[in-house]
Structures are given as structure tokens and as C-alpha cells.
Amino acid sequence: MRKQFLIFATLLTTAAFTACEGHHHGGEEPDKELPEEYYSGGRLGTTSNTTSSCFEQFTPAVEEAGLVANFKRGERRFEVAHATEKSDGLTYYGLGPLYNRTACIACHPGYGHGQRITRYNSEEYGNGCLIIVTDKDGNIASSLGLVPQTVALPPFKPMIDERKLTVTWLNYTDEWGNRFADGETYELIYPEITIPEDGFYSPLEVNGKPLALADAVITFESTIGIYGTGLLDAISDDDLRAQYLAEAPYVTLNPAIWNGATWAATGVDADGHPMRFDYACDFTKLQANTSLWEVTNIITPMFRYLYIPEAYARTASQDADVQAKFYQYYPQWNKTGNVQTDIYNFLTSKEQEVEMDANACYDLMVWMRGLAVPAARNVKDEDFKRGKKLFTEIGCATCHRPSWTTGDDVVVDSYGLTNGGQKAMPRYPHQKIWPYTDLVQHRLMMKNDIRTGWCRTTPLWGRGLNEKATGHADRLHDCRARNVIEAIMWHGASNSDARGSVENFRKLNKSDRDAVVKFINSI
Known about the structure:
The protein is an alpha+beta fold.
């Protein structure tokens, strides 16, 4: 299968790079002095800012649509710490009764990838790791939800007592002894996360069935960079389907997404849009992303309920400590006189008071869809050109597909934020973009792997600027890779989908390996 996949890789990437030469889609005529991949996000989606604020810039499309003020208001929503109670017109509020961080940016430092941690601390900036608890088949512990919340307002208690969580980073030696043939060495590390039984507030469950701690798998998933999300959203569903069709004969694809000929039932949303975002490929179009609105526990008109699993509500309603003080903190919820019933009804209510109105939600979506991608760097350097050529020849460009051309970019508005299109959104029709991802999940078979083993190919655009923007260069889903070499070598397990590319990388001399690294850090 790997040999077949590498043959496919050669054919696909040769065609891709040939097709990329000399074409430009959308916007003004390109600068003849710069190759087109300089414009990573196309003419409508690229910023020339490569400073520490490079991931925070709005796209030219935002300015063209007259949405700069909306973008800045949405940005403020993302960056400002929220309060637990409404105090004045300038304070954003709505945190509680459970949450993770007081501000979104605390998990997405500099709008980029989260950083490697040695302890889980919800008060630490940049500690953007989600605690993932599953059974051994990768099914999420439904008693914790997709985002376990480790901070609680009285009288409630957190889902997980983060003080009892232990992170241990262990050394890993691969089959090559962490050494290239020319003697250069590298290090590999991976995390083990443990939580004792009494670190969980509710008994662990998967879909209502008990999950013994001995059968639970605990891992981390770091927050991803959020710049350029609107551009990925603008890729057409048909083009994404064509990518799956092209790869299906050569490599096994996640059956939860693709059934061999078309989308699986769980691979699309109710409107037929295919999954494309996040490591888990667990949501479709950007404005259909429920997690954007739910996980903060700030009530919006679209989701007038708390993002709290039923298992937690059940446990809290029976907790004598919570019962003793519930009416003190929530007197308005003394509706039946039965405190257990009132607690349960409060936590599961679908009619919570709105804390963030539709206009604010619209501004936040303008901001999310309007984040630009930094322009590529060093594009005229010979090392960049050599690294690009080698990146293709060794097979990396198969999964890290260099470029896409966006479709008509008809904005999907699942929640009516644009009033039926009366309010504008940043749009990116027919732009040639360079994200370096096929938007498909593959398996790397790493030690203490990501949940289910399936991970969407991470876009590489802008990643070389992550240290400048966030203060760290950590990569991969749990930040186990501290640099590009470590990230590449974690792709090298014997049964990894990327094994052939790593074997080819290992055959390169140091100068060529350095050229590949420079290229990856420049795109």
C-alpha cells in the first residue's frame, strides 16, 4: 500500500506543481518579481506583516467589504477577558458556571498554535491543551464532553480537578536510534497524562455506559492556529470531494468520513457539507461550527443552553454541597422548591438568558473569517527553491498539498448572522491559496497517538512564524515536536502513512535536509 501511495504521490505532486506555474486567480495582476506562492492566502487573503502580530491581521477582503470596524469588534471579543457577571457596558460577561479560560486568546496565543506544557494550569497564558478522555476505541467520554471544563463558579465544582492531573514527558527512541546516516542526532519526546479516580467529578461514561478508569485513554490536543480559516472555508465542497476520490485508491481513509466511494453519513453535516476543520475533522463550514459558539458557556441567541454534559448535571444535582448553596447563588432558579430538580433544570435548560447578542456574534464571525495569512518568506532564495523541489520529490507534498483554488465562496450562514445575506462577510472567490494541506485525515501511528489515530493534515502556511507570534515553535497535535526535524521524524513509524516520505528524507544529506526545513519555515 505504501509503495502504491508513493507512486500516487509522485504523479499528484508533479501535476500540482506544474499546474501552479504561471497562473493567477483574482485580484490585481501579481508582482512579476515575486512567485505566486508568496501570496499564501491569495491576493484577497494575504498580509505582508511578518512581525509578532502577523497572525492577527485582517485580509484585504475585509477592507474591500468595509468590515474593518466589525473585524476589530470581533477581535476584542476574542482577546478581552470575560467577567462572570454583568457590571457595565464595556465588560464582556457570561463566564460560568463552568469554563476553561477567561479569554479565548489565552488558549490561542498570538492566534497561533498552543504551546507545550509541563503542567495543566487554566490560569497560564498559552496553555491551550484540551484534555481528551476516550475509551480504547477513541470514543469521547460523553460525561466530560469534547471540552472538559476545569474551572467552576460556586457552588459548582469543575469536571476535572486540574491540580491532580500529571503531565510527564518521556524520551522516545525510533528504529534509527534518533540518528541520521551522517551522524546528526535528534531527540523525540511524548507526553503521558494521568488523572486519578478522584480527579474526575462525574463517573466516566461513554454514551451513557460506564467507562472504567483502567480502560480510559487520556491525551492532550493543542489548540490550532486560527489564521486563514476563512480561506479554507472558501474551498468548494466539490474540490474537497475530488481530493478524497484522488487519494482513495492509494491509501486507507477514515471510514467515519469516507465510505470508499463517497462521504460517510458522519462525514457530512445535515446540509451535505463535508468535514474539513480541526484535527478530528469534526465540523464542516465555518459558520456551522457549533463549538465556536458553545464551548465558552457564553449564551448566544443560537445556543441558549450551557455546554455541560447531562452526566455532570446529574452528578451536581445530587451533590449535597451544591444543593446547600445553590439558591444562594441562583435564587431565580428556585422554581419547584426541590433543589435537586432545580439544579438539574438549570444546568440543562434550553432557555438561558442571552449574554452575547447576534450583532456581537456577527462581528466575531467577521473577525474569524477575516484573518489573513502571512506572506511566504525567502521565496527568491536558492535554498527555498531547492527545499521546495525536495519537499515534492520525497513525497511530503502529497498530504501537504501545496495549493488550492477557492470556489465561488458562497457563505454558509447556518444561524442567520448575515440576515439572509443583507450583512456582508469577507469572501475569497477564485483565489489561488497555498495552505499545504489536503484537508484529509491520515494516520502517523505515533506513540501515545492522537485519539482514534486519525489526524487531519495540518496546514503549514505561516507555521515558521509561530515562534515569533507566540513565543514557541512547538508542533503536532500535542506539541511533542519542538522543531521541524522532530515533527518530520514523528511521521516515521513503520506503519505510518508518511513512512515513505520519512525514509526519503533520511536519505538526504544535511545540506538538503536543512533546505527542506528552511522551505517549511518559510511558507
